[in-house]
Fold Tat pathway signal sequence.
Amino acid sequence: MEKLRSVFWQPTPKYNAVRTSQSDDDDQQEGVEEKLRSELAALESNIWCLRASLLITIVALLLVTIFAVVDRVSYDKASLNCGKGHIGSDPNGFVPPASNVLVNGNFADWKKPDGTVAKLPAYYSTVSYRQTYIIRSFHQMHCLISIAEEYGHRANNVSSQWAPKHIAHCLNAIREAIMCLADATPMTYVNGFAVGHVTDDQQFMCRDWSALRKWANDPVRGIRYKNIAPEGAGYDNNTEILPFPELSELEKVGLA
């Protein structure tokens, strides 16, 4: 039976898979190369953009630096030539070479009433007899304290130690400070009209008072006094503290 089946039904022949033609391989290779070329072009474009951005940034920084230097030089010249500078600034920059303190031979420039410029003369400390200056804002703070003391004296019917001319001088010093600052910051009642004060909860654009105090309290230029007048005296008797005292961190920045 098997022999008869083998005569009439021949087995189905097996065929090997047809190999991919050379043209198909070429098409695939070209597709890969085209993709690589596209990715390379995109990479080159990104690199070019980064280089251009970096160049623009460098140029911008250089321009900002140049303008800042030119502005500073122009400001310094204007301060000496005509006494005009940025609002609220002193004629020597942030602070004079030495001020409120020991001069150490670094005399500040002084524009006289007649317009000529000379070196600002110093005065002498009371004990060590060293040349010193005083910072204007520190004097203004002294005046504010003097006015507050005068108010307290009058409110409590106590004789004031300050002569009327001294209080008038201090009021004028505070007026000068206000007019010199010419602060144009807008304000309002942020918590409702007439609720609290018109200055409540609003930022004040300031220079750094603590930095100025820290600079002035550096022992290389610092000079401090104490009042040795007896309790209840109607006068001050200030004497220099020698050697310069060790200050706490809060004292160095004027907060204690």
